[in-house]
Amino acid sequence: MADGTTVVVRRAGQVAELMLDRPAARNALNTVMAEEIASACAELAEDRSVRAVVVASSSPKAFCVGADLKERSGFSDADLLRQRQVFRAAFGGVRALPMPVVAAVHGYALGGGFELALSCDLIVADETAVLGLPEVRVGLVPGGGGTQLLSRRVGLARASDLIFTGRQVRIDEAERLGLVDRRVPAGQALPGAHQLADEIAANSPVGLRNAKRALTYGADLPVAAGLEVEDSAWHATAFSGDRREGIAAFTEKRAPRWPGH
Questions:
Q1: Is there a catalytic annotation at residue 135?
Q2: Which SUPFAM superfamilies does its entry note (predicted)?
């Protein structure tokens, strides 16, 4: 896959790694990076050989510190509106990936950086992680999905506390609040995320995509409606080549060779 100037995409077997690569700025999210995230996600979404994605950072001190306010300092209102559409495409691109996505978080994940992690399905964070949505401290509100994704992850009251105060949360509290899904030692966020992604990728790609679809679209529906979403996902999986291979592999006591269709 082609690399951009601020985003690098690499393949490791059936797992793709989307690396934020603007280390001098601690991956402050500017217009170019947002464009490249959206483009990389569009390419990954069409690649049926990718079973899981890891979103990570090349910066030794941060996952992503949020929007590049230096770039914005010279913006007109029209410039800000134009960038808004690019940013929405970037965050939306991560959320729309049809395969499971794991964030590997170390150091600062603030503002849009935390929202990028929240846009993933699972968050692996190491002991150095510092999370927060400080937008109200600079006259903004979270705009990359933070108000919606954080409240769904930890509940309305806890999300309100974090968003209204704009405070930063370190790993002990982040783990207690449920802001992260797996905690690993310092320096182990990326290998920890890859270990989880590899475990996921060993499973049926048809099953994974349909399970994610059912989780995503059913989560906010009444139970009866959500069960209809699940039933649709079941039908899309049960008559697939993956289901037939899964049964054959179980019967023959061997590892499955998923056809992925």
A1: yes
A2: ClpP/crotonase
DSSP the chain: ----SSEEEEEETTEEEEEE--GGGTT-B-HHHHHHHHHHHHHHHT-TT--EEEEEE--SSEEE--B-HHHHTT--HHHHHHHHHHHHHHHHHHHH-SS-EEEEE-SEEETHHHHHHHTSSEEEEETT-EEE--GGGGT----SSHHHHHHHHH-HHHHHHHHHH--EEEHHHHHHHTS-SEEE-TT-HHHHHHHHHHHHHTS-HHHHHHHHHHHHHHTTS-HHHHHHHHHHHHHHHHTSHHHHHHHHHHHHTS-------
| Active-site option among 107, 112, 144, 145 | 112
Q: Which of 135, 144, 159, 218 is catalytic?
A: 135
* pTM over the 0.85 mark: yes
Whether 112 is catalytic: yes
Angle between helices 31-45 and 77-96 (to 10 degrees): 30
At 77-133, the pLDDT tens digits run 999 999 999 999 999 999 999 999 999 999 999 999 999 999 999 999 999 999 999
230 annotated active-site: no
